[in-house]
């Protein structure tokens, strides 16, 4: 447990845990407004810059599949400290690199490191608090995490405007170093008893979950829902700068607005949780398809920044709405294996999101808002088909 388990130290350690949560969001989104300037400064293509985000998501997702078991075996504290040190050093390293391949490699390492930070932070609340207190604190986890993706591109836009793309990674390095120093001063090991990794048991649990149709279907839907956001994150900065003549600051504001829309979708979903699930998912998905088709058509005739962001805001609300529903449903599928299920969901969703969004964004060039709108239509149409299938299963189970 903590070196000094006094109420005061636990309170400060809890505050520090919350303070560290947005770091993963900053690593993802803070440099999005700098995509165009990075491509020019490094003299590489748009796809090569976009790949630095895709591989980060892939490594972050894959690592989550294994991190939980490792933290149960080796504790939370030392792996977390090592991971924070790695984030600090790799962020500083990226600022000095001018080779996109090395930057991409460093982003892979950062994805693995941040998965250790995120999972160990979740485990902190499980280790330190009883069930009722845990619910209280974990209910704020998603809200605090959302601060990263919402604020990061807004801050990154200004860092790019007044300094350069490297300033984003200097900020991340500073944030990681601050958390590391505070961790050394305040925190400690919270795992009471270390557990041996039982490979046969782990494999059996994974096999059980991966053979469960609704569980896997939920993960696919989560991946597609988040792909809506990822397609914009990957291609949006280039579209806004090249087609709509937007500055890095404007790109930051746009990403800030769309990040907020995801949170709105989650809040609306929670407010409507008492309504029939089948109707909720079908209506939300159908509305999203209509919005996507509308903006794709309108963008062919008018390239207006405000119009495009307004429609994208509503489209992202629908995705956040669906994501919240299916994340809850997926987590409730295996309550007796919540830890393993959570790692599997988080890992596979990020892997699926990375692959699907990258594939969709690389099917032809995305140079105009209309190109981006067509990608929205593709994802929304796939989601609607899946919603029809899920709704049918849901009605069948309800009738039974």
From TrEMBL:
One of its GO terms (cellular component) is plasma membrane. It holds the Pfam family MFS_1. Keywords: Membrane, Transmembrane, Transmembrane helix, Transport. GO terms for biological process: xenobiotic detoxification by transmembrane export across the plasma membrane. Its main location: membrane. It comes from the Bacteria. It is found in: Membrane. The keyword Transport applies. It comes from Sphingobacterium psychroaquaticum. This is Drug resistance transporter, Bcr/CflA subfamily. InterPro entries: MFS, MFS_dom, MFS_trans_sf. It is a multi-pass membrane protein. GO terms for molecular function: sodium:proton antiporter activity.
